[in-house]
Q: What sequence folds into this?
């Protein structure tokens, strides 16, 4: 007879793994509180490890200062249900904005942040400097895929800065409604 | 397989030293957007350094426990020898804060101040053209290098490379855009960016002077196609310079050897500022 795998054992304090996932779905991103870590694709796995319940998260940008806060929030959320847990950080596969769920993209838009385009096309390492992408002097880069203003839906937008209020966002302005907005950069 | 500690520290020190240098613009950027951009790029670079130092720290206990793996007294100790071991512990922080100038393996290019050689009398002299040219020369190296390392046999390093290549790509775009704007801009901006290029390009000879550092990495199985890397870097450089109406200067003369621990006088000042708090209050936490 084989030994039962730890991962199919019910969780401590009678929370099943599904229930743990449900609790964790309530943990919001510290910077963008309208979306959860699960929806952003940061929460990778929940499992029983040698030290008890393990929650696997993956960092976004290498230097994102919110990662510690995210780990603390995960532990606190489970502790409030009486479940002790540890957070494990896993680098591979590297987080990508393509993992952000469609529902979360709608929430980002409603919150005033333009959701990211496909990262496949935008940041595949060597593919950055195709001739079509060349910048014109003192002019915004012509984009094949315009960033849509989350306020008025106009595609008549302009990049103010590729680096915005946080590592993951760029600063844009809408030339139709004149409002500035954040664009969640493809990663 | 595991990458030699020397090579991991080389990658980590490159990121940390440039991250620290670029952060000198924080609060002093020429415009608000550039202030944010430089701070964001520093955050990425310091984040990459943390991942690499943590990997060294994770692997180094094996080295420290094995007396034969420790270098003899007076010999080169890449992790700073006993100075970086606090209570027998090697951590990302001890690697950043308790190693001295000769222990650092970064390219000399990255430690130079934000101005040319002859205007070093003014402490506050921050020349944005120098910053942009340096960031361009380095990110044009790192995009194809990280790309190659994503498939390296050391899976931990490959995972770090897969994250870093995305960030380096944004850094390359940023510096290239500004290189073109400044080069193909006014007479003043063109002259300053051309002067920066003439000052900094000779330091890139160090990228291609293959030394014991690269040989050790290759022998351990971290295979880098240097001919391809050089071709990629040269193509990125020539393409950008042509668009920026800049002239590529010759890159002869003295070959710097920062990656072998022989640094310019500037690294000591940078480290003194960066390390002073940790050394005045060892073990301090927020």
A:
């Amino acid at each position: 007879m084989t030994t039962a795998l730890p991962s199919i054992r019910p969780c401590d304090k009678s929370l099943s793994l599904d229930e743990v996932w449900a609790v964790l779905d309530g943990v919001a991103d510290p910077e963008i509180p309208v979306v959860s870590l699960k929806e952003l694709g940061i929460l990778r796995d929940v499992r029983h490890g040698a030290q008890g319940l393990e929650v696997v998260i993956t960092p976004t940008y290498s230097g994102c200062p919110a990662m510690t806060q995210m780990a603390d929030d995960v532990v606190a959320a489970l502790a409030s249900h009486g479940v002790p847990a540890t957070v494990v950080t896993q680098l591979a596969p590297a987080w990508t904005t393509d993992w952000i769920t469609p529902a979360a993209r709608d929430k980002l838009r409603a919150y005033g942040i333009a959701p990211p385009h496909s990262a496949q096309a935008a940041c595949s390492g060597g593919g950055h400097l195709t001739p079509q992408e060349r910048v014109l002097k003192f002019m915004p880069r012509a984009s094949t895929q315009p960033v849509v203003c989350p306020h008025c839906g106009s595609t008549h937008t302009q990049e103010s800065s590729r680096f915005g209020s946080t590592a993951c966002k760029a600063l844009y302005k809408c030339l139709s409604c004149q409002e500035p907005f954040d664009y969640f950069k493809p990663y | 397989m595991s990458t030699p500690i020397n090579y991991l520290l080389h990658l980590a020190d490159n990121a940390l030293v440039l991250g620290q240098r670029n952060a000198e613009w924080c609060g002093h950027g020429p415009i608000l957007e550039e202030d944010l951009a430089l701070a964001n790029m520093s955050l990425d670079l310091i984040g990459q350094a943390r991942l690499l130092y943590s990997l060294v720290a994770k692997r180094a206990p094996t080295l420290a426990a094995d007396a034969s793996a420790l270098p003899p007294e007076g010999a080169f100790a890449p992790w700073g020898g006993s100075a970086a071991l606090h209570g027998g512990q090697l951590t990302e922080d001890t690697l950043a804060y308790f190693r001295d100038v000769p222990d650092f393996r970064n390219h000399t290019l990255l430690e130079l101040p934000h101005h040319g050689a002859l205007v070093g009398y003014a402490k506050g002299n921050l020349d944005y053209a120098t910053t942009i040219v340096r960031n361009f020369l380095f990110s044009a190296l790192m995009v194809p290098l990280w790309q190659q390392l994503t498939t390296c046999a050391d899976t931990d390093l490959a995972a770090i490379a897969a994250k870093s290549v995305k960030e380096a790509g944004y850094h390359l775009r940023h510096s290239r855009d500004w290189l073109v704007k400044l080069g193909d801009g006014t007479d003043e901006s063109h002259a300053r960016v051309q002067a920066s290029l003439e000052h900094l390009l000779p330091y890139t000879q160090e990228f291609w002077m293959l030394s014991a550092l690269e040989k050790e990495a290759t022998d351990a199985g971290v295979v880098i196609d240097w001919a391809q890397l050089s071709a990629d870097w040269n193509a990125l450089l020539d393409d950008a310079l042509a668009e920026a109406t800049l002239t590529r200067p010759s890159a002869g003369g003295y070959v710097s050897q920062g990656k072998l621990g022989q640094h310019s006088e500037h690294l000591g000042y940078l480290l003194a500022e960066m390390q002073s708090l940790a050394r005045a209050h060892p073990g301090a936490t927020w």
In short: The CA atoms of residues 152 and 177 of chain A lie 7 Å apart. Chain A is about 20% helix and 20% strand. The first helix of chain A runs from residue 17 to 24. The mean pLDDT of chain A is 83.
